[in-house]
Protein: nepenthesin
Organism: Carnegiea gigantea
Amino acid sequence: MALCSSHSSIKALLFVFGILCLLAKPTLSTSRKALDHAKPARLGFRVALRHIDHGSNFTKLERVQRGIKRGRNRLQRLNAMVLASGSGSYEVESKVQPGNGEFLMDVAIGTPPNPFWAIMDTGSDLIWTQCKPCEQCFDQSTPIFDPQESSTFSTLSCSSPLCEALPSSTCEEGCQYMYTYGDYSSTQGILATETFTFGSGSGSNKVSVPSIGFGCGEDNEGNGFDQGAGLVGLGRGPLSLVSQLDEPKFSYCLTSIDGTKTSSLLMGSLAEANSSLSTSENEATKIITTPLAQNPSRPSFYYLTLEGISVGSTQLPIKEDTFSLNEDGSGGLIIDSGTTITYLEQSAFDQVKKEFTSQMNLPLDDSGSAGLDLCFKMPKDTSNLQVPKLVFHFKEADLELPSENYIIGDTNLGILCLAMGSSKGMSIFGNVQQQNMMVKISKLTEI
């Protein structure tokens, strides 16, 4: 269901999340000050995205497996951070961010513009790229940014609001930052401002935005930055691109991870337009809206209120508080571009697994070859194969997913697998479940 494609002739789905607190002051007292730079009055631009395995010969299942492997520490680290923030050790754990994303943004930095691919991550805030001179840098496909060759580069002082918003910084010839991710990758360098250019093509398709705060990384370690030259955080904190642009709306459409089309990220005024779905006169746009929740322990994350799950015609008897946010900040469910599959709290996943096993009516595959919790042996004749529908009952919104967003088949292995897993504590709505729908995030609850 290529709902992002202008050539699609099927129903289009727009999933709208109301960020009720996006521009409200989070726990950091400097958050509003960090948004005080002058920006274009009605900024709007489109950024090309591509999956990090785009153009490879991997099957869809292999791409999912690689994504799970890349992010194996992400969920564990997310839970550890939230629990630590509620137990008095927030100052230590706050230095660790969720980890690296699965989609890359087409961005350029500096004057003249220096193009590079950056990881898109809705689960973290800092924008950064590798900079010369590099004490420790990983390989990247584009030239490393040289601040001395840009006429618009400027370092930030330690008293600047963005420096004060960092989880960890020191003052030595400017604001020195240290940012560590969930897979123990890290970036370290100086916080600065620079002109960023977004959009593809030339002329009116490109938008240049001055004075964006970013990390100029001179010591960058780890193997979690596959094919990217840095990262663009789209979280709710003051350091993120969303907050710095002072544009409370963005949307994205992630095409199938095994497809050939690039995905899109829309910012500002473009994110408001329903026309961005490129629907034809034969298509119907179905809009589903649900408000976002706020977790004071982790104010940067986008939390959804999940009230239940249905498999086929059966609404599972999941306890009412299974996905609730707890007083200590644990629990809840976030939507995240950087996690491949959806992870559900263990008791809920067990019920989903049990119901799929019953309704699929296929022999189980217990070889473990896929690395997923539930797989079935693929029948020789798949023409009459029926997959139970899967519905997530969010607050005020029921989201029925296309079957390709949760069942993945591999003819070489002869298996069909449920692209979901279990967790303890926090749950995550992953990018496989988000593919081929327009996800709009806005402070507005209606459009």
Observations:
- The CA atoms of residues 317 and 386 lie 23 Å apart.
- The chain is about 15% helix and 35% strand.
- Residues 5-12, 18-41, 83-99, 274-283 have pLDDT under 50 and may be disordered.
- The first strand starts at residue 12 and ends at 18.
